[in-house]
Write a structure and sequence with these properties.
alpha/beta, Rossmann fold, Dihydrodipicolinate Reductase, domain 2, six-stranded parallel beta sheet
Length: 457
């Protein structure tokens, strides 16, 4: 399927044609036919989790297609599953074998999440997408609408939402242990820059163009982004530092570190986000800052108090407080500050702990609040996804209806961080009200052949 055919198909939906995907009937005995877009890196973990591979190498579900723009990164996956059909371009995969696929798992850089996901949903495929769900707010809102429109099983891969830890946090709050929470504090020790890490500074900005390696389909990797020369400073991992491709450290880790307060407190969207501090960088708005601090401001929600949320990254931390009873703060973490008590997690919400004097904490640990939220597994978002399709398990915990909102909160913060400014946000109209030039980041420009109308339905 070439770009023009794909866009023509998308335009058909935009014009109002009704498309009802054929939803296959499943039973726990069925094997799903799974296709994976992104085989190396995070894709390898998702293949293992969704296929439910036993120690003997037997899969509970069929891996029918593997798609990756980089033959070198995908080589191990190709070798492990030699019977799966191989593709470099997911459009060609759907064109060749859409009728053979039940569900699609997408583990690509942020900027290519949306086009592959919306195409899969239009074809009636259940979809699992790595976090953050999409690259801009318009894409998030569209995927949320797509879930409601097509009625498919969807999942954003933020592992922490499938842990017992995040369920405990919500139970403790709802049991009144914390009281009113008016403040949330979170910090993360990245980004750090190195040859081996997920971020690295190029020699010049933008990086100099290089010859495209034979094992890479650069055009497919670039996807909807505007044309530019290939550089090894973009991939396979350093794309996260470029705002055109990734959503910086905040967009990546917010879906872990802020998942618990977002879910527990029903935070919704901030009315404003203030860039309190940003270390000046020579690359300006195109590349992630190495240190920053943001303040999110959330309004009152029913009987829940307004919340001020401070986010620190790049190794800077909030001040430790005597009432927390901590010798020092960990490298990364999150604290929900209540008027009765506070709780803390690490970068992920899997191991919450109540803070305070030792006697109070000991009494709490001996008399935990009642479990009111079902336990369905421990950090298994992939299993939760396939089990929801086959009927073995309940609905997914982080479907697009939830994942889109969590990611949107992060992306409003990314705008404030990127431009070192205050963002006043009108969530109803999807609009930054104090900057007239922000529409281009709410819905980003794309290359010819990758555009969508204002509404797909």
């Amino acid at each position: 399927m070439n770009r023009r055919d794909f866009v023509n198909q998308s335009s058909m939906f935009g014009a109002g044609a009704m498309f009802i995907p054929h939803l296959k009937e499943y039973s726990p005995a069925n094997k799903l036919n799974l296709a994976f877009i992104g085989v190396g890196g995070r894709g390898s973990k998702n293949i293992k989790g969704c296929a439910q591979i036993s120690e003997g190498g037997v899969t509970a579900h069929n891996i029918v297609a593997l798609c990756d723009v980089d033959d070198q990164r995908a080589a191990k996956g190709y070798e492990t599953f030699p019977n799966a059909k191989r593709f470099r371009d997911w459009r060609k995969m759907f064109d060749a074998m859409a009728n053979e696929i039940d569900a699609v798992v997408i583990s690509t850089p942020d900027h290519t999440h949306f086009p592959a996901t919306i195409a899969a949903m239009q074809l009636g495929k259940h979809v699992y997408v790595e976090k953050p769900l999409a690259h801009n707010v318009w894409e998030l809102r569209t995927l949320k609408k797509a879930q409601a429109h097509y009625g498919l099983v969807t999942q954003m891969g933020n592992q922490g939402h499938t842990t017992n830890g995040i369920r405990k946090i919500k139970e403790w709050y709802e049991a009144g242990v914390l009281g009113q929470v008016r403040e949330v504090i979170a910090w993360f020790n990245g980004p750090s820059f190195s040859e081996k890490g997920y971020f690295n500074h190029p020699d010049v900005y933008p990086p100099n163009g290089e010859s495209v390696p034979d094992h890479l389909d650069w055009d497919s990797w670039l996807g909807p982004r505007l044309d530019r020369p290939y550089s090894h400073y973009y991939l396979p991992k350093w794309w996260r530092g470029w705002h055109d491709f990734g959503n910086a450290e905040l967009g990546d880790w917010c879906c872990h570190t802020l998942d618990a307060p977002f879910w527990t407190l029903d935070l919704g969207m901030p009315t404003s986000v203030d860039s309190v501090f940003r270390l000046p960088e020579p690359q300006g708005r195109h590349f992630v800052s190495s240190q920053s601090q943001l303040q999110f401001n959330f309004p009152q929600r029913g009987d829940k108090a307004a919340v001020r949320l401070n986010w620190f990254e790049g190794g800077i931390k909030p001040a430790n407080r005597p009432e927390w009873g901590l010798t020092e703060l960990p490298k990364s973490g999150m604290i929900m500050v209540g008027d009765k008590a506070s709780l803390m997690t690490g970068g992920r919400p899997n191991k919450p702990q109540l803070l305070g004097n030792p006697d109070m904490v000991a009494d709490f640990n001996a008399n935990m609040p009642e479990q009111t939220i079902a336990r369905v597994g421990e950090e298994d978002p992939q299993g939760e996804f396939v089990n929801a399709i086959t009927g073995i398990g309940p609905k997914t915990g982080s479907p697009f209806s939830y994942g889109a909102e969590l990611t949107e909160m992060a992306l409003v913060g990314v705008l404030a961080q990127r431009f070192h400014t205050t963002i006043e946000y009108d969530t109803v109209n999807m609009k930054v009200t104090n900057h007239d030039d922000m529409d281009q980041y709410i819905k980003e420009p794309v290359r010819e052949g990758w555009s969508y109308g204002e509404d797909l339905w």
